[in-house]
Design brief:
single chain, Diguanylate cyclase, protein transport, 291 residues, cell membrane, transport, 12 helices
Length: 291
C-alpha cells in the first residue's frame, strides 16, 4: 500500500499546482513565454541558418527582410541570429548567478535563524551592508576590479542577490525552530544539519523558489546593464546588453538594432514576473484554502 501511494504523491502535488495556476491564468502565459525562449536559445541552430559571428560587409545595416527578418548590424551580421544566440548567454548568466545566490543566501539565512545570537547579528549586518549598495553599482564595482569575464560577472550578480535570499530564509527559520516537531527532533538526538535540511528547509523552499523566479529577472537585467556600459562579456560574443549598446550608436538610422534586444529583455522579464505571481499564489496559504 505504501509503494502504491508514493508514485501518486508527485502527481497529486502537480495537480494541486496546476489548479492554483489556473486561478491566476496569466502565470501560464509567463511559463509558456519563458519555455519558448529557453527552447529557442538551446536549439538556436534550428531557428536560424545564419552564423551570429559571420560578417557580410555588403549587407551592413540592412533593414528587416525575408533573408534577415530583423535586419543586420554595422558588420552585416544577422540580428535574429545574434538575438537567439545572445539569449544563451543572458539566460545562462542569469540562471547561474540566481542559483548561486539562492544556495548561498538560503544557507546563510538558515544558519543565522537557527543559531541566532552573535552569529545572526554579524551575518545580518553583513547582509545590510550589501543591501545598502544598489545591485547595479555593486556589480559594476566588482566587475571593474576583477575583469569582465563570465565567471566574474556571474559572481558579481550573485553577490548582489544573496541578501534577499538570506532574509527570506532567516525569518521562517526563526519561527519554525520553536515548533513542537523540531523540539521532538532535538530530543531524539538529531543533528542540526539533519533538522535544517530535512525538517526546516522543505517548509521554506517554496518561498525561496518564488524569490528565485523574481530575482532571475533582476539578474538578467543587471547582466544587460553591465554589458551596455561596456563591462559585460566582450564582443564578438552576442549578448542582449551588448547588442543594445552597439545598436544605440545607430539608433537614428537603424533603430531595430537596439529595439529588438530591448524587447527581448522586456518580454523575458515580463514572463518571469507573471510566473512569479503564479508561484506566489501557489504557496499562499489563503489561496490554497480557496482552491
Amino acid at each position: 500500500m505504501t509503494h502504491a501511494a508514493l508514485p501518486g504523491a508527485p502527481r497529486g502535488a502537480l495537480r494541486a499546482l496546476v489548479r492554483v495556476f489556473n486561478v491566476n491564468k496569466t502565470s501560464w502565459v509567463g511559463l509558456s513565454i519563458l519555455l519558448a525562449v529557453i527552447v529557442i536559445a538551446v536549439f538556436a541552430p534550428l531557428f536560424t541558418a545564419h552564423d551570429p559571428l559571420a560578417q557580410d560587409v555588403t549587407h551592413q545595416l540592412s533593414g528587416p527582410s525575408v533573408e534577415h527578418i530583423f535586419g543586420t548590424d554595422e558588420y552585416g551580421r544577422d540580428t535574429w541570429a545574434r538575438l537567439i544566440y545572445g539569449a544563451r548567454v543572458s539566460l545562462a548568466v542569469g540562471i547561474a548567478s540566481t542559483v548561486i545566490a539562492m544556495l548561498v543566501g538560503s544557507a546563510i539565512g538558515l544558519l543565522a535563524g537557527w543559531y541566532g545570537g552573535r552569529f545572526d547579528a554579524v551575518m545580518m549586518q553583513i547582509m545590510d551592508v550589501l543591501l545598502a549598495f544598489p545591485s547595479l553599482i555593486l556589480g559594476l564595482v566588482i566587475v571593474a576590479m576583477l575583469g569582465a569575464t563570465t565567471p566574474n560577472i556571474v559572481f558579481a550578480i550573485a553577490l548582489t542577490s544573496i541578501p534577499p535570499f538570506a532574509r527570506i530564509a532567516r525569518a521562517p527559520t526563526i519561527a519554525l525552530k520553536e515548533r513542537d516537531y523540531v523540539e521532538a527532533c532535538r530530543s531524539l538526538g538529531y543533528s542540526d544539519a539533519r533538522i535544517l535540511l530535512v525538517h526546516i528547509l522543505p517548509n521554506i523552499a517554496a518561498e525561496i523558489v518564488v524569490m528565485g523566479s523574481l530575482w532571475l529577472a533582476n539578474a538578467i537585467r543587471t547582466e544587460a546593464s553591465l554589458a551596455f556600459i561596456g563591462l559585460g562579456i566582450k564582443p564578438p560574443t552576442p549578448t542582449w546588453g551588448g547588442m543594445i549598446r552597439s545598436g544605440f550608436e545607430n539608433i537614428l538610422d537603424s533603430a531595430w538594432l537596439a529595439v529588438v534586444p530591448s524587447l527581448a529583455i522586456l518580454i523575458v522579464i515580463f514572463a518571469l514576473n507573471l510566473l512569479g505571481d503564479g508561484l506566489r499564489d501557489a504557496v499562499d496559504p489563503k489561496l490554497k484554502n480557496e482552491v
